[in-house]
Amino acid sequence: MSDVSNSKAVPPVLRESATFDRLSIQEIQRAAETGIYDIRGGGTKRKLPHFDDLLLLGASVSRYPLEGYREKCGTDVILGNRFAKKPLHLKIPVTVAGMSFGALSANAKEALGRGATIAGTSTTTGDGGMTPEERGQSQHLVYQYLPSRYGMNPDDLRKADAIEIVLGQGAKPGGGGMLLGMKVTERVAGMRTLPIGVDQRSACRHPDWTGPDDLAIKIAEIREITDWEKPIYVKIGASRPYYDVKLAVKAGADVIVLDGMQGGTAATQEVFIEHVGIPILPAIPQAVQALQEMGMHRKVQLIVSGGIRNGADVAKAMALGADAVAIGTAALIALGDNHPRLDEELKKIGSAAGFYDDWQNGRDPAGITTQDPELSKRLDPVEGGRRLANYLRVLVLEAQTMARACGKSHLHNLDPEDLVALTVESAAMARVPLAGTNWVPGQQY
Amino acid sequence: MKTIDLSVATVRDLNQALHDQVNNVQDREWVVTHANGAHNLAVGVNEAVSIDIQGHAGYYCAGMNQKASITVHGNVGVGCAENMMSGYVRVKGSASQAAGATAHGGLLVIEGDAGARCGISMKGIDIVVGGSIGHMSCFMGQAGRLVVCGDAGDALGDSLYETKIFVKGSVESLGSDCIEKEMRPEHIEELQELLNRAGFNEKATDFKRYGSARQLYNFKVDNASAY
Amino acid sequence: MCGIVGLYLKNPALESQLGKLFEPMLEAMTDRGPDSAGFAIYGDEVADGWIKLTLQSTTESSDWKALMGELEGRLATSLNWFQNASAAVLKAKAEEAVVRAALAELAPGVRIMSAGQSIEILKGMGLPKEISERFGLANMKGSHIIGHTRMATESAVTMEGSHPFSTGADLCLVHNGSLSNHFRLRQELRREGINFETENDTEVAAGYLAWRLQQGDSLKTALDSSLEALDGFFTFAIGTRNGFAVIRDPIACKPAILAETDDYVAMASEYQALSSLPGIEKAKVWEPVPATMYIWERESA
């Protein structure tokens, strides 16, 4: 006798739809409830071809490595010597990317300046103007020139060490900035000339120029105002970098900043973060090709950003042809963002250490992405600066270790020939051979 | 009086000479001749000098001006007095688009017409236009006053913050969140003072006032189509 | 992304100076477009029943004389022609389609830049000054002319990718801006039988106008419908046999300025391109408003 229903049944397996997975279902439910898109901070969270898919070829018999301490591996970089009378000379090729006072607390901005200065590199303002704390604590400060022009003024322009004209960022190429009301406090609103507490939307295009022909005149204006002293960077979000880099060079940029889709944002629609733009891996070779075709590689410097985490990423980005990299999200983590000691507090606001991305709502228990005076106090700018400097030091030490192993006496001598790819996708995107082969997909048929 | 003739001197010569006045003023009065539509004339000036530009100017004339008093005896191109902080710019002719864009202070007077996006993202400047203005003017205007003695084009004051707009003539259409508001005595008074200061023989009572309905200040489901 | 300039003479007495007046206008737009330049000049009309073509060779040296000899034999009619640098202007008493067919067969490497009774399109890679010198612009005569200096955005810098683009008999187009829907539109127009030689966005706008005109639209109707069909940013100047037209997209970010005196109407991306014109100090100078067509045409010849 057998009764199927009473037999030792196989435990039921719930099958999750690959299409309607839990996240998709949750988002449909959220949208149905609220009627408005989801806004969050950070960069894309999806799995993308990245530097982890590349490997460096260390020296062996055919090439000879350098010794660790005695045999130097240079790390300095000069930025902006195409036209500017006073180019930046940084000790390390890792800079701190633009993040606004408003998105970040004043203490966080000061900490970034302190850390960058200890490490001998630059930090960057953001969509909201320059704070005295930041200027005071930053040896090299890059002043962003954005579509909104919040807080933009010629005095600060003259105080800056370089000027970065922002056309877009990797998290949202083609989109404008956002700062939700919780963070538009009296001081933030005052600096931006906005009513306190508004959900600020920034323009996506500059108000007084559109396209490279007009950009050329705009760059000339800023050079005139600053007497041709300051390097002028042009920052683009990676989408069509081959064309955009060529046009930025034609328009007269000294430096190109190229931000891939892994780059973070203080607040943007989730759908924008996840679906617009391209990763930094395929963006770099396109940018380098554009510069090379114009005879401008190394003459117009290329700073890349979007998902730089460790010294290997730095070395690989430079091997692909970047002159320097910029860090944003990683710098915030170094300051204390998403620290495990905050886990309990993060759980109270619906997140957890390692997952927190609600940078838009100003409740960051780390005191970084907030304007709350009590929360802000939690970040000691001196201690934060020290942590960032440590992290920057490690990034560079790691990159040097790998460069020495490849036989390089300077980081900028790393080149694509030092790289192989682990996957067909990354080989095609980075334009380096698949490991163990001489095959670069997409380059030869 | 110092004269700079742009048929022989460069724009760089002009701006450097003007910037050099900051530490050591040699001349209070400057005349620029043969402008011929050149870009970036008298940008980044930071001293209370008076500058007369003879002829038409190109893009960004008087950009980021501080303290100086600049008169253009002709038309100006895109972005005249963009991001001005203080001082006074007077255009005897007409202005192209984005006049007074993002400017924080000072007074910009355009005797003729201004093109599209006049006063876009303005942050405290006063702009007085003798003629009419083009479409999308005062888009995202944050602070300051825009006065138009003629007509205004499409989508006036779209996504407006706290800029006050006064128009004497017709308005082709108002942008999202921009509404007509009551002219109270204090508005008539401040407008009359501004018209007088700008040198226009107009009566404040002939103007209508427009401002933000402040309905888009915070994200709301009902406004989704306006974003 | 570019500079555009146009000059239409109201006073026929100035026609002998058209090229001389226009050359500094084109060169003033060098910063806006250093990659390539070109112009379409109208004048030296052929009689009804005749056709005038501007040809450019895609190969380095072209034996125009031999080609014209062969063509003469094929068409069984006598030709007038002259060489101008890398281009040749051919006048024949024949149907345009017949000449085109013969050329396609005899000289597949030759590109027809323009066709009509009046128009000549001359363009190429290089700075505006090089182009105007190459083709002897300063000595050219005519009733009106439009020109372009190009800063290439996405498509290649080539002679074919230079403006103006021909859009039909005696019609051409120059563009400042960047279209965002040209890819799909090009596919659709190809299905309608419109031929494209480049990946250039402007060529699609030109092809669109050519198609609308073939369908029987007037220039005004065709331009009005282009405001719907074309997405992105543009200021266009359109040359016609009798004059020229200017139109900007509804957002109107790309600049344009117009000037008019008793002697001429001129347009440019920037005022500085107009500053060399005689009497400009007293001209009426204004900006064209968005999504509105401005047209100047003399009585049909």
Write a structural description.
The complex is a heterotrimer of chains A (445), B (227) and C (301). With 445 residues, chain A is of the alpha/beta class. Chain A is built from 15 helices and 16 strands. In chain A, helix 10 (311-319) links the parallel strand 14 and strand 15 (324-327). In chain A, helix 6 packs across helix 7 (241-251) and helix 10 (311-319) packs across helix 14. The longest helix of chain A has 25 residues, at 381-405. Chain A is globular. The model of chain A has no long low-confidence stretch (mean pLDDT 95). Helices cover 10% and strands 23% of the residues of chain B. The N and C termini of chain B lie far apart (52 Å). Chain C has helices at residues 18-27, 64-75, 96-106, 128-134, 182-191, 201-214, 219-229, and strands at residues 2-9, 36-42, 51-57, 79-84, 87-92, 110-116, 119-125, 144-150, 165-168, 171-179, 232-240, 243-248, 257-260, 264-268, 284-286, 294-297. The longest helix of chain C has 14 residues, at 201-214. The mean pLDDT of chain C is 92. In chain C, 25% of the residues lie in helices and 33% in strands. In chain C, the strands form three sheets. A seven-stranded antiparallel β-sheet of chain C has the order 7-2-8-1-14-13-15, with helices on one face. A five-stranded antiparallel β-sheet of chain C has the order 9-10-11-12-16. Chain C has seven helices and 16 strands. In chain C, helix 2 packs across helix 3 (96-106), helix 5 runs parallel beside helix 6 (201-214) and helix 6 (201-214) crosses helix 7 (219-229). The interface between A and B is large, with 34 and 45 residues. Chain B: This is Protein glxC. Chain B: InterPro entries: Glu_synth_asu_C_sf (IPR036485), Glu_synth_lsu_3 (IPR012061). Chain B: GO terms for molecular function: oxidoreductase activity. Chain C: This is Glutamine amidotransferase. Chain C: Keywords: Glutamine amidotransferase, Transferase.
